[in-house]
Amino acid sequence: MKQRITTEQLKELTPKQQERLIEQWYSRETNAYNRRVAEDVDVSWNGMPLLSIGQMIELLQTTGILMSNEQTNFGWHIHIGDVAKYTAQELCDALWEAVKSIL
């Protein structure tokens, strides 16, 4: 199971989305921890974190948007609110699609 997004996925973000990700990442309560992660080249790229599954769930929860997920034969489905649905074979990839939508 894939645990983190890749640098290629971070490169999908627009400059504005990159800025929002950095703002949200550094404004969280665990600021010192997040700075150490951003400096670790194994889990960051250009100062942006290679988010793990847990970190993406945290980011989605901090937005106040209701989120649910389910696994089916077709992959993972992430539901945000009553409207948006993101699907991928890997949970990590489905969560990343959801995170990109809120940035």
Give a structural overview.
- Keywords: Plasmid.
- The strands form two sheets. The chain has a three-stranded antiparallel beta sheet with strand order 3-4-5, covered by helices on one side. The protein has a two-stranded antiparallel sheet with strand order 1-2.
- The protein is globular, with a radius of gyration of 13 Å.
- A hairpin with a 2-residue loop joins β1 and β2 (48-49).
- The two termini are 25 Å apart.
- It has helices at residues 7-10, 15-27, 31-39, 53-62, 91-102; strands at residues 44-45, 48-49, 67-72, 75-80, 84-88.
- The chain has one domain (7-102).
- The chain is of the alpha+beta class and 103 residues long.
- It is 47% helix and 20% strand.
- The chain has five helices and five strands.
- α4 (53-62) packs parallel to α5 (91-102).
